[in-house]
Amino acid sequence: MSRVKRPNRLFRNLNGKIAALPMIFTALVVFVGGTLWTVLYSFTNSKLLPRTNFVGFDQYERLWRTSRWLVSIENIMIYGVLSLVFTIVIGFLLAVLLDQKIRYEDAFRTILLYPFALSFIVTGLVWQWILNPDFGIQSIVRSLGWTSFEFNPLYDPDIVIYGILIAGLWQGTGFVMCIMLAGLRGIDEDIWKASRVDGIPKWRTYIFIIIPMMRPVFITALVLIAAGIVKLYDLVVAQTSGGPGNASEVPAKYVYDYMFQAQNLAQGFAASTMMLLTVLIVLIPWAYLEFGGRRKHG
């Protein structure tokens, strides 16, 4: 009996590969090409227009001597750590509550997810009004009799980044909740039955059994949150425009201001290259955990 000749691996799913060519071409030319172009010109002294007058690492040395950039790095670190922790914790706890088969679950899920449907500009403007001391939370509480109450984080340079964090958590927590809820709904019901039979408390089941099983879900949520943290811009512009002073400056706003307002392309390119390194620091460990781990166990 003659064997059926299998097609060469190169020609498998040929139609799909041909259909993917425009996307591959776009990725290579626009994203990879643009990235390499940005890194290359970060080593020049380009101002209004790019020019190939290389100056080595001068732009990077100047970048790390600029107080505005150092403030932006400090802010993004504070915002990033707190955003990662609180978004994951609050999102998971909300998912656990909704996973208890409560009444009106669909309504609660819609309400909690609704902020994610808004743009960051709208979210920033809404929370700018809510945190405004003249007609926001501070004004409402004072009108109730607590005349000494103060809550105006957007006007205090020491805590302004926390006012931006509140808006970020309000917008992003519902999305993480949905991811976590999907992960919880994928857990086999037999695991819960076995834990009840063994008399294991529910909180211990979550900590020692459910959470380890949801590792891919947590990694995906962490990567999505981290990507949003690195490109934080809209919330800051809508709420504070980087103020008071430069107290709420973030790297993405620094890049935009230097490239389009200060007309210093090379300095903006150097700052964006540092942001790219930050993204790679996030993506490389994620790729290793997701794909390297599968190969080892596969």
TrEMBL record:
* Keyword terms: Cell membrane, Membrane, Transmembrane, Transmembrane helix, Transport
Q: Where found in the cell?
A: Cell membrane
**Protein's UniProt keywords contain Transport:** yes
Q: How does it sit in the membrane?
A: Multi-pass membrane protein
Q: Where is the ABC transmembrane type-1 domain?
A: 73-288
InterPro entries from the UniProt entry: ABC_transporter_permease (IPR051393), MetI-like (IPR000515), MetI-like_sf (IPR035906)
List where the protein spans the membrane.
Answer: 21-43, 76-98, 110-130, 159-184, 205-230, 269-289
Principal place of residence: membrane
Pfam family of the protein (one): BPD_transp_1
PROSITE patterns referenced in this protein's UniProt entry, alphabetically: ABC_TM1
Write out the similarity annotation. Belongs to the binding-protein-dependent transport system permease family.
PANTHER family in alphabetical order:
ABC TRANSPORTER PERMEASE PROTEIN
The protein's name is Sugar ABC transporter permease
